[in-house]
């Protein structure tokens, strides 16, 4: 019973399927002599889909010629009713949309003028021929009317050759100079597809000037024409700071370049905190914000900004293409109060080896427009970012960018006689102050690749400690070993095992604040003896070098009076010109003792002189008493009458 029921259902399904197929193919049988292979392949209606701008005119048609007695119906999106194109009961709808039979071809077609937003969707055309019907459906997408780019509105805006000059949905474009159009030279212009760009060349690399753009855009038949003014703008990084109550946003945007951003780094200058700012990742307080590396935007969002966050930052951007990578950056000031322009991060003393390439740095805390250096003999060295290595110049700019406040000069060859001495560097920013900011520093040049940080001559005092040493060039280059030779020929090496508990020769040991791994070798003499004064030799082997380097240092007795500067110097001063706490205490105690002694001696001399004057006065009175006794007698009488005695008179005198 179940099997027979299943068989009956199967037969009924086949019967229904055959009837449905007959109904679907019935119109084709009546119209097979009217259709071509194109119509069978692409459908009856043309076009099957259309994108039209709001306010334009739209045309739809069936690819079947109409005969006498045929009717043409259309149905709007969302409507359940078919409307006759030639008129009918719904004339108000026809007048509202102005739908008319196409002129020329005898086809079932309509024209919609103008197109509104509500016209988007599926439109249906139906050709009725007796009992037969041929239908077609078109998908209509209504878009906003394309607009002229804002950068080129009215032909008065100035843009760079890297800005987008295409309207939205551009299909083709012609770009040429206005002078060429006025001269009738538009015949050689080749249309561009989907995007407008400047036809730059070797003879016209920047495209600066006035251009005319003619573009065909999707959704409308009329072409768009407008003018643009191109300025030659160099690539730059534009910074911005947005401060809200609970978050700050620091942004750096790369502009006027065809290259794409590859990486972004923010550095907090107060403590050197570095952040690799990448879209999609972050920390509880820091994260990326912006339109993406594709738009050359990099922003740092700081949630709950704290003390150090409210200071100066640097953004460092790497950008390029498959064959090139460039690095640039800028300073972003997030301070509550703007600090004045100042030179920061400068070495008090710069060291270099004679005859080698070396750099001098002088960085500022704000972006700078320019910088320059003055040498020890009055030389002037002006710098710019365009002054690069390879131009054959004896010096060039060293640093990432002036916009980061970085000013550096690199010499191809640094010479002792020309470059050693006191230098001055100057930086300027016209937006901050008309006055330049300057700083000075010392440049010391060594004949070898090690040098004494305290100078060629170190002052010491007999019986007091002294410090000698030598550092590698460049600073921080590790030393494999180091050793010293005393003036009387004693030689010994130093390492971390030579300490105050285990000194060499009972009084030489390593300075615990220096180590060979950082390229520093430093010797402490516990108590200077007479034989220690003279020429010392510091020698060290830098890792990777075949031989060791040697540098000579003179240990001079300050008590000899032959001070190097031509002036008497205090014997308590250290070799580098600074005073220790013990020296200062000794000087104070000595000064007090000297002043107290001077007061005591002066008081003793005063009492002694007063005693001599008193004795001399008494002797003179006695002499006068013996020689002029009557006068004294009269005087005495006169005084006695006043109830006084001669003894009292002498006492009064």
UniProtKB/TrEMBL annotation:
Signal peptide: 1-31
The entry's keywords: Membrane, Signal, Transmembrane, Transmembrane helix
Record keyword RNA-binding present: no
Matches recorded under InterPro entries: Ig-like_dom
Biased composition, class Low complexity, residue ranges: 633-653
Ig-like domain ranges (all copies): 339-438
Transmembrane segments: 584-604
PROSITE patterns: IG_LIKE (PS50835)
Region ranges (Disordered): 628-653
The protein's name: Ig-like domain-containing protein
Species this protein is from: Anopheles coluzzii (African malaria mosquito)
């Amino acid at each position: 019973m179940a099997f027979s029921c299943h068989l009956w259902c199967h037969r009924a399904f086949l019967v229904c399927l055959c009837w449905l197929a007959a109904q679907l193919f019935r119109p084709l049988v009546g119209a097979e002599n009217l259709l071509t292979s194109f119509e069978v392949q692409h459908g009856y209606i043309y076009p099957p889909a259309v994108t039209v701008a709001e306010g334009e005119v739209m045309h739809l048609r069936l690819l079947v010629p109409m005969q006498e007695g045929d009717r043409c119906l259309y149905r709007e999106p969302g409507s359940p009713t078919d409307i006759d194109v030639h008129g009918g009961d719904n004339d108000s709808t026809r007048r509202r949309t102005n739908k008319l039979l196409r002129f020329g071809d005898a086809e079932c077609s309509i024209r919609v003028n103008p197109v509104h937003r509500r016209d988007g969707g599926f439109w249906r055309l139906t050709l009725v021929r007796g009992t037969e019907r041929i239908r077609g459906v078109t998908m209509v997408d209504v878009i906003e009317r394309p607009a002229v780019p804002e950068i080129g509105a009215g032909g008065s805006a100035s843009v760079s050759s890297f800005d987008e000059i295409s309207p939205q949905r551009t299909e083709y474009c012609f770009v040429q100079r206005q002078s060429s159009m006025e001269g009738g030279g538009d015949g050689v212009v080749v249309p561009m597809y989907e995007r407008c760009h400047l036809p730059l060349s070797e003879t016209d690399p920047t495209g600066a000037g006035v251009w005319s753009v003619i573009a065909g855009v999707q959704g409308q038949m009329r072409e768009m024409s407008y003018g643009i003014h191109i300025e030659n703008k160099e690539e730059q990084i534009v910074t911005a700071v947005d401060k809200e109550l609970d978050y700050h946003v620091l942004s750096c945007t790369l502009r006027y370049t065809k290259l794409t951003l590859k990486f972004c780094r923010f550095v907090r200058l107060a403590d050197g905190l570095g952040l690799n700012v990448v879209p999609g990742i972050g920390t509880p307080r820091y994260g990326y914000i912006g339109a993406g590396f594709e738009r050359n935007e990099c922003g740092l969002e700081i949630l709950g900004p704290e003390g150090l966050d409210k200071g100066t930052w640097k953004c460092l951007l790497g950008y390029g293409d498959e064959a090139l990578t460039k690095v640039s950056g800028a300073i972003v000031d997030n301070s509550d109060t703007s600090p004045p322009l100042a030179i920061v991060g400068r070495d008090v003393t710069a060291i270099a080896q004679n005859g080698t390439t070396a750099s001098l740095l002088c960085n500022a805390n704000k972006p700078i427009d320019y910088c320059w250096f003055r040498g020890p003999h009055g030389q002037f060295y002006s710098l710019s970012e365009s002054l690069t290595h390879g131009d054959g110049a004896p010096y060039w700019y060293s640093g990432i960018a002036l916009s980061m406040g970085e000013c550096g000069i690199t010499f191809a060859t640094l010479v002792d006689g020309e470059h050693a001495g006191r230098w001055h560097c100057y930086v300027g920013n016209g937006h901050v102050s008309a006055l330049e900011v300057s700083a000075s520093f010392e440049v010391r040049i060594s004949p070898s690749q090690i040098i004494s940080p305290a100078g060629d001559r170190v002052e010491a005092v007999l019986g007091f400690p002294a410090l000698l040493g030598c550092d590698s060039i460049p600073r921080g280059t590790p030393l494999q070993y180091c050793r010293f030779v005393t003036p009387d020929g004693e030689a010994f090496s130093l390492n971390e095992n030579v300490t105050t508990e285990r000194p060499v020769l009972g009084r030489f040991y390593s300075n615990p604040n220096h180590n060979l791994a950082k390229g520093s070798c430093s010797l402490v003499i516990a108590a200077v003896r007479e034989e220690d004064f003279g020429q010392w030799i510091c020698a060290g082997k830098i890792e990777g070098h075949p031989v060791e380097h040697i540098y000579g240092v003179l240990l001079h007795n300050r008590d000899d009076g032959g001070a190097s500067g031509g002036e008497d110097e205090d014997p308590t001063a250290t070799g580098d010109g600074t005073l220790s706490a013990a020296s200062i205490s000794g000087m104070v105690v000595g000064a007090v003792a000297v002043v107290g002694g001077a007061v005591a001696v002066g008081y003793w001399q005063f009492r002694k002189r007063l005693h001599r004057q008193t004795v001399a006065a008494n002797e003179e009175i006695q002499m006068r008493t013996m020689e002029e006794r009557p006068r004294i007698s009269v005087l005495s009488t006169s005084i006695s009458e006043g109830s006084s005695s001669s003894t009292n008179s002498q006492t009064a005198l």
